[in-house]
Prior knowledge:
The chain has 314 residues and is α/β, with parallel strands linked by helices. Helix content is 42%, strand content 22%. A six-stranded mixed beta sheet has the order 7-8-9-10-11-12, covered by helices on one side.
Amino acid sequence: xxxxxxxxxxxxxxxxxxxxxxxxxxxxxxxxxxxxxxxxxxxxxxxxxxxxxxxxxxxxxxxxxxxxxxxxxxxxxxxxxxxxxxxxxxxxxxxxxxxxxxxxxxxxxxxxxxxxxxxxxxxxxxxxxxxxxxxxxxxxxxxxxxxxxxxxxxxxxxxxxxxxxxxxxxxxxxxxxxxxxxxxxxxxxxxxxxxxxxxxxxxxxxxxxxxxxxxxxxxxxxxxxxxxxxxxxxxxxxxxxxxxxxxxxxxxxxxxxxxxxxxxxxxxxxxxxxxxxxxxxxxxxxxxxxxxxxxxxxxxxxxxxxxxxxxxxx
Length: 314
């Protein structure tokens, strides 16, 4: 076996020196922490400090929730006390108002003694009072004015009614009646109708009024407003007719306004276009026929399209 001799003359195997150095190297490496080990330790210290901080923070937060501040507790009970006092006051006021209302509605001082009814023409005071349901002795404060108004307006001839209390013992009713302008045929019965063509009530002998009968062809309802203006214009211009001597009036697609006179059996026709001018021309022709003594022979006088036509009786 061969030996390697070093400079000092000692005769140790070369492998022994290498092993000694290796042990020293590893021993030194073992005694000195590596960079990786230091880094891990630093991270662990940071994580620990974070955990401690979080733990301390959560402990502080939980402590605030469990132990509220004295100011919070005082404010809560103050608000609760205010709410209780407010609710008690409201309940007391409500009970007081109810008791006051019952007292007022039972006082003999407000006992109904007089029922005044104004504005009647066709209807009577007795009819209106019967409809109202009012009776002497009723408490003025307990009367429901809306219910009285609704009851009176069930009468077909009543258009509006205004009711008010007159203290201490009077009810005043002001009634506006509907005004009939025509008769109208509906379902084999003859009805009164107002100037707008709205049916009021059946024609009877109790409150009989002679009026011209109104006929409206389908689709001509839109000219009802113009018809009302026509009657006013006829009266203002001295036309030879009025509602008093008209048997019937018809809104017609062919002639516009057709009027049958009651005393002469003559029909007048008036075109709706430029009806004011047509009315003026018809009045002039009427006067001319009367002057010449030919009016009795005229069966139809029509004023349309800026012309006047006269049809004689056969």
